[in-house]
Design a protein that fits this description.
Length: 337
C-alpha cells in the first residue's frame, strides 16, 4: 500500500472569535434556513454547541478518501462564547460563515478585533483514542471507518448511503472537547487584546503621578475606562467556559471517552491556565489605575463643588452688603443729606 504523508500536509483546526456571544437558537434557525443539517452525529449537545458539516479541503490523501468516510467532510462547531471552530474547512468558507452568514446571531460583535488560532491535527487510523503532543492533535480514528449500508441514485449516479456509527459519535465528542479547549484560548486572546488596549490608553498615568502632575481626564473618559475594565473582568470570571475545569456540556459524558483529558491537554498546550492567572494579575493592576482615576474624578468633583459654594457665598455676601448700604442710606435724615 502506498504511503502519502510526504505529499499531503496535515489538516488544520481553525478557531475564530467574532463576538462576545452567539445566540445559538438564532444560529440554528439561520443554518436550517441555509439547509444545513444540524447535529449530524446525534450528539444531542444543543444548545451548548451547534455542529454542522462542510466539504473537507486540505490534508486528505487518496488512502484516507478510500478508507475513511470522515476524511471527506469537515466539521464546524459554534459555541455560545462567540467562537466558531472548523476542522479541515476552507478558510474562506469558515470566515464567510463566521462573519457574514451567522452575523445576525451575534451579541456585541468585535470584527475589528477578530481573533483566530490554528492547530494541526493528524487522523490516526491505527488508534481509537485521541491525544495531543506539542502543538499537534492526534485524532484516533481506528473505529471510525464506515461501510456503506445501502446506495441511492441521484441524477443517474449511484451514491453510497452511510449510517452513523457509535464510534463516530465518540469521535465527534472528542472533536467538540478539543474544539472547546481551542475556543477557550481564542476567547481569552480577545480579552488579552482588550486589556492591552486599556493599558495603551492609561500608560501615561503612573508617569504623570510620579511627576506630581494632575490628570487631564474628563468625567466621561474615567467612566468609560472603568466600564471597560468591569466588562473585561466580567467576561473572564463570570463566563464559565473560561474558568471551569470542564464545560457543562461534558458533565454527562462517559468517563472512558476521556473528554476532560482532551480539554485539559489543549488548555495546557496553549497555556490557558497561566494566561488566565496573568490576566487576573494585570486586571488587579488595572483596577488600581481605575481607583486612581475615580479618586481624581472625586477630587475634581469636590473641588468644583467647593468653588461653587465659595461663589454662592460671595454672591450672598455681596447682596447682604448692598442691602446694608441701602438701609443705612435710607436711614440718614433728609436735612443732613
Amino acid at each position: 500500500m502506498q504511503n502519502y504523508p510526504a505529499l499531503y500536509i496535515n489538516p488544520i483546526i481553525t478557531a475564530y472569535c467574532v463576538a462576545e456571544q452567539y445566540d445559538l437558537n438564532q444560529v440554528a434557525e439561520i443554518l436550517r434556513s441555509c439547509e444545513y443539517k444540524l447535529d449530524p452525529d446525534s450528539t444531542n449537545l444543543f444548545p451548548q454547541v451547534v455542529h454542522i458539516e462542510l466539504p473537507a479541503t486540505t490534508g486528505v490523501s487518496p488512502q484516507q478518501m478510500n478508507e475513511n468516510y470522515r476524511a471527506r467532510i469537515g466539521d464546524v462547531f459554534i459555541f455560545p462564547s462567540g467562537t466558531i471552530v472548523g476542522w479541515n474547512v476552507d478558510e474562506e468558507s469558515l470566515t464567510l460563515l463566521a462573519t457574514k452568514t451567522l452575523f445576525p446571531a451575534v451579541v456585541n460583535p468585535h470584527l475589528e478585533r477578530l481573533e483566530t488560532e490554528d492547530l494541526e491535527y493528524v487522523e490516526d487510523l491505527s488508534k481509537d483514542s485521541s491525544s495531543m503532543k506539542g502543538d499537534t492533535i492526534y485524532l484516533g480514528c481506528k473505529s471510525g471507518n464506515m461501510q456503506p449500508s445501502d446506495s441511492a441514485e441521484t441524477d443517474g449516479v449511484q451514491h453510497p448511503v452511510y449510517e452513523i456509527a457509535t464510534s463516530d459519535v465518540n469521535l465527534t465528542l472528542a472533536k467538540i472537547a478539543l474544539s472547546s479547549g481551542l475556543a477557550r484560548s481564542t476567547k481569552l486572546a480577545v480579552l488579552e487584546s482588550l486589556l492591552d488596549e486599556y493599558f495603551a490608553l492609561t500608560r501615561s498615568i503612573p508617569t504623570m503621578l510620579s511627576r506630581g502632575k494632575g490628570l487631564p481626564f474628563t468625567r466621561s473618559f474615567v467612566l468609560q475606562k472603568t466600564g471597560q475594565l468591569m466588562s473585561i473582568r466580567a467576561q473572564l470570571n463570570l463566563y464559565s467556559e473560561l474558568t471551569d475545569s470542564l464545560p457543562d456540556l461534558f458533565w454527562d459524558s462517559r468517563y472512558e471517552l476521556g473528554l476532560e483529558r482532551l480539554y485539559d491537554q489543549v488548555g495546557r498546550a496553549l497555556d490557558v491556565g497561566i494566561r488566565i492567572k496573568t490576566l487576573n494579575e494585570k486586571m488587579d493592576y488595572a483596577q488600581e489605575i481605575a481607583s486612581v482615576l475615580r479618586a481624581q474624578l472625586s477630587e475634581q468633583h469636590g473641588n468644583r463643588l467647593e468653588w461653587i459654594i465659595i461663589a454662592l457665598i460671595t454672591i450672598e455676601v455681596g447682596f447682604e452688603v448692598r442691602r446694608i448700604y441701602h438701609e443705612k442710606r435710607l436711614s440718614v435724615p433728609e436735612d443732613i443729606v
